Write a sequence for this structure.
């Protein structure tokens, strides 16, 4: 089973700043089958990025994903007030698919 | 409009069997590539994938929970059912169903989730 480790656990930033979130896999994620989700309090997660770098429908271009192999990054170029949330990565290249433990982006 | 909605008991006793139903609309689980999964989230914790059923009725389970889980589908009713046996307080969580449109992949649509508490 592939273990995903996200860092940092919490990111304290101000609106307008750039956020860089990391997701590291214990083994190579085949074909860059990695996704990112955003979860706000009391809500279900919502898909942001799939295939490591493809934005889901309706996701603004301030969100971008990159990486391959074992190291992946989610970047939010300029934080908007609605971006403060918890972010999870997920690998679906091998079964069982697994999630990281999450990174909370909070207002500084 | 594509939607998924989870339903089931809010409270179960330890050792009981939990049965959850995911009722969906706007897509068919007989479409090639379509899958529905169950995922849970304990309070304040990360997401944990539990089980998946695909358009061809193939089933996949979490390694750690597979002896307790059964997933099934009723294509005519647009429903996916998950049963989990021998419930324990550590199984207290919000249970989500979610759709994967391209096989064993990412989840593009999620239900709102249903909170299940395990307590005597």
């Amino acid at each position: 089973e592939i273990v995903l480790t996200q860092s940092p656990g919490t990111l304290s930033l101000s609106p307008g700043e750039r956020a860089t979130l990391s997701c590291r896999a214990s083994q190579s994620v085949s074909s860059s089958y990695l996704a990112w989700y955003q979860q706000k309090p009391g809500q279900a997660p919502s898909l942001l990025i799939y295939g490591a770098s493809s934005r889901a429908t309706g996701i603004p271009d301030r969100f971008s994903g990159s990486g391959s192999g074992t190291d992946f990054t989610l970047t939010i170029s300029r934080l908007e007030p609605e971006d403060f949330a918890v972010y999870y990565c997920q690998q679906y290249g091998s079964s069982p698919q697994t999630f990281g433990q999450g990174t909370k982006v909070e207002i500084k | 409009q594509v939607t998924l909605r989870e339903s089931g008991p809010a409270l179960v006793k330890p050792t009981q069997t939990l049965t959850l139903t995911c009722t969906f609309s706007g897509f068919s689980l007989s479409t090639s590539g379509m899958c529905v999964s169950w995922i849970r989230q304990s309070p304040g914790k990360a997401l944990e994938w539990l089980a998946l059923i695909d358009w061809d009725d193939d089933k996949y389970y979490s390694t750690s929970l597979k002896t307790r889980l059964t997933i099934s589908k009723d294509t005519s009713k647009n429903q996916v059912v998950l049963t989990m046996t021998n419930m324990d307080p550590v199984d207290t969580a919000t249970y989500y169903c979610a759709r994967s449109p391209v096989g064993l992949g990412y989840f593009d649509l999620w239900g709102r989730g249903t909170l299940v508490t395990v307590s005597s």
Observations:
- The interface with chain B takes residues 1, 33, 35, 37, 43-47, 50-51, 56, 88, 90, 92, 95-102 of chain A (CB under 8 Å).
